[in-house]
Design goal:
With 93 residues, the chain is α+β, with helices and mostly antiparallel strands. The protein contains three helices and six strands.
Length: 93
């Protein structure tokens, strides 16, 4: 199981956020996030939003640190990328 996380550089709700993704399946991603105690409501289309204060926890649990550009590339390569406003495509949850 490999999941990936980008640096916490995305602002929102007064915090900085990272994106946690899988390059295999949403099932793998949900399992990893559940192991971290991340609520399912943090899942948005094709990734989990992870607050900056939880970044190190995700890395300690095995998430591989990559750039934001690499996160997008991995999602596209796996067929898991879901854009805002697009229909449900890619592998199912």
């Amino acid at each position: 199981m490999t999941v990936y996380i980008d640096p916490p550089t995305w602002p929102g709700h007064g915090r900085l956020w990272s994106h946690l993704v899988s390059d295999v399946s949403y099932a793998e991603l949900h399992l990893f996030a559940a192991g971290l105690g991340v609520p399912r409501r943090a899942f948005e289309r094709d990734h989990y939003d992870i607050p900056a204060h939880r970044y190190a926890d995700a890395v300690r649990a095995g998430a591989v640190e990559v750039s934001s550009r690499e996160v997008v590339r991995l999602l596209h390569a796996a067929g898991l990328r879901r854009r805002k406003g697009a229909g449900r495509t890619g592998r199912q949850v």
